[in-house]
Amino acid sequence: MTDTRTTAAEPDRGFVDGHREVPILQVKNLVMNYEVKEGMVSAVEDVSFALPKGSSLGLVGESGCGKTSVALTLMQLTANNAKILGGEVILDGVSLLELDKEQMRQRRWTDVSMVFQGAMNSWNPVYTVGQQIREAMDLHWDPTPSAKEVRAKTEELFNLVGIDPEMIDRYPHEFSGGMKQRAIIAMALSCDPKLIIADEPTTALDVIVQEQILVELKKVQQELGMSIIYISHDIAVIAEITDLMGVMYAGKLVELGPTGDIFARPRHPYTWLILSSTPSITGPRRQLAPLEGEPPNLLDPPTGCRFHPRCPFATEVCAKDEPPLTEIEPGHSIACWNHEQVPVTFVKGEG
Amino acid sequence: MTEQNGKTRVKVEDLQKLFPISKGLFRKSTDFVHAVDGVSFEIKAGESLGLVGESGCGKTTTGRILVKLDEASGGEILIRDDATNEMTHVDDVRSKEDRKEFRRNVQMIFQDPYESMNPRRTVFDIVAEPLFVQGVGTTEEREKRVIDLLRLVGLTPPEPFLFRYPHELSGGQRQRIAIARALVLEPSFVVADEPTSMLDVSIRISIMRLMLELAEKLGVTYLYITHDLAVARYMCDRIAVMYLGKIVEMGPTEDVLDSPMHPYTRALLSAVPVPDPSYQRPKVEIEGGIARAINPAPECRFLARCPFAIDQCRTDPHPDLYDRGTDHLVACHLVASDGSWTGRERAVLELHS
Fold first, then answer.
1. Residue A4: pLDDT over 50
2. Which range (A1-15, A62-76, A95-109, B279-293) has the least confidence?
3. Which residue from B minimizes the CA distance to A264?
């Protein structure tokens, strides 16, 4: 597969003006396996995408589909048994996979920072939140900032994410769950990174708090022109805050394109089924189609298309040959041999 | 069991649960968290009631009290037993025999299929345990019953599953086992505490469908506890919305979701993410997070976050569920004073603009 076919840059969709042409991040043919006793787990297989500056990309998929593995590979924070077998990650012109450990450490926070799932529980209880944010700035700002600069920056960030700046000198236990998560986002922004990777940043939170944090993240993206990769299993959250989305299945990117286009008309059978099986509080109460079967064992992934054992449209070719990610309309790519079979509408019926 | 439909299966009257806040080993607690505070509802046989709300609102505590995993601090629970066709007072269930009988009738499905099973026991042991405890059937009969149930919950063919351990199963399969275990004694009432929240979307739908199918087939009555209104929409005939230990709104699912009346229900609904990028979401009207109801003051529980509060909300105790002559009840002074909430809302909006 060639790079031109997989480029996700689609110029007309809510990007910050003037930043359209340059992708801040390019991932090309990334392959990553986990080495385990039984063999190699194919966690990320030939994943390619590009993220235009100032836009947001959502990665969705079931647990174990490799979305977090992609993020950890970008950050080079993978576990010891992870083997990056190929591919390129280019962030703002720098090839991240070619950096050594120390160079990569310097890039984290300043170039790319990550908000982990359940990150709100990672605050150290014996330091104030302000002290912990300061630590990141002390290590990564060049030159090392003065106390006054740190204070000013932290206050600015707290205002941005909607926390009273008076809370800077408080300890984590004095924060509610939602506030802790906002403070984590403030910390992730403290060194003005070019890219933020947010891995399920609202999964442990209640809907009202989740909504507040999504609004803050969107604000950060729009006001600071930040590029964000957003990882979630919740397709409704992805619908709400991303410009582009990539659907992953069993380590592979199966559909990639503008979020609006994919929701309007999913082209890959897996995306179609996932969207058909997502309950919603709006719209007619349609019959939800269950997705039969289980995700495959990645120690021994199915031959051909990895989705073929569960696919209602699978034919002989699907078990034999792997479909490449192919652009079917500008900016919208899918990996499927039989995508013409996918109905235009969702599975419908009275609920 | 279908001839029971329409009769009251469960009746909860003024249920209360207070958790003392520990002050230390030898000091008497004077502060209490009012986890469940004056909750009343009825569930008809064959119906499923959804209990929704944010974490900490008391929905799980209510469910645990209903299955006698927790002791209530006050109030009454009556559950109809099919064997005797009488409403049993849950407080009267004390002796070992009574408890056994109660468990046969009332069961619970837990949230986390990874933690609610003994990892050292096989699927057969897990599903058959209630039969052993209750002394139902011979070994062969139990085996047959377990196989039937595994088939019923969609684990086919059942035989290969019998002697597997929980760690060999996926999350969806485990939750099916948990459902089989809860249903093996043919209970008439099941409390399901977020049974799908730990599962992936694709698996979630099949478990939801399975539970609906079984309700139809076996006439099971559910109390379905969930934080996800979209799930409640598919699973429940009626919804009760809880906030800080109180039911603030209750009614038929479509009524509550289409025309929510309590400001909290409205906020909750407008915060639910919608899988449609073109959807224009209404602004969430409330701020802040849920608190804990520690020795709550005699005022509306929602006062601190309510954008529409009037003087009465401060001076009067928390309002009772206001009966407007329909099934759709709401605990809000505004609705009670105005008859309709929307009129008041418009007035408030005009005031602000």
1. no
2. A1-15
3. B276
* Domain annotation for chain B: domains and CATH numbers: 2-242 (3.40.50.300), 244-272+291-352 (no CATH)
**Which of A:42-81 have CB within 8 Å of B?**
62-63
Question: Under 8 Å CB-to-CB from A181, ≥6 apart: which residues?
Answer: A115, A119, A120, A201, A202, A205, A209, A213
Which among B233, B270, B289 has CB closest to A279? B233
In eight-state DSSP terms, residue A162 is: T
Single-letter residue type at B66: L
- Residue-range domain boundaries for chain A: 3-341
Q: Residue A119 belongs to what H/E stretch?
A: none
Mutate to test the interface with B, among A281, A291, A346, A350 (most CBs of B within 10 A): A281
Pair type for strands B74-81 and B86-89: antiparallel
Determine whether the interchain pair B233/A285 forms a contact, defined as Cβ–Cβ distance below 8 Å.
Answer: yes
B205/chain A closest Cα distance in angstroms: 5
Q: State pLDDT tens for residues A33-72.
A: 999 998 999 999 999 999 999 999 999 998 889 999 999 9
How does pLDDT run across A90-121, given as a tens digit for each residue? 999 999 999 999 999 999 999 999 998 877 78
Distance from CA of A94 to the nearest CA of B (A): 33
- Report yes or no: A164 at the B interface, CB cutoff 8 Å: no
pLDDT digits (tens, 9 = 90+) for A219-235: 888 888 899 999 998 89
The mean pLDDT value for B107-122 works out to 90
> Which 8-state DSSP code applies to residue A132?
H
- In words, the CATH class of domain A3-341 is alpha beta
Q: Which two tokens stand for residue A84?
A: 């990056």
- Over 60: is that where the pLDDT of A197 sits? yes
Does residue B170 sit at the A interface (CB-CB below 8 Å)? yes
- Please state whether the predicted TM-score (pTM) of the whole model is above 0.80: yes
Q: How far apart are the first and last CA of chain A?
A: 42
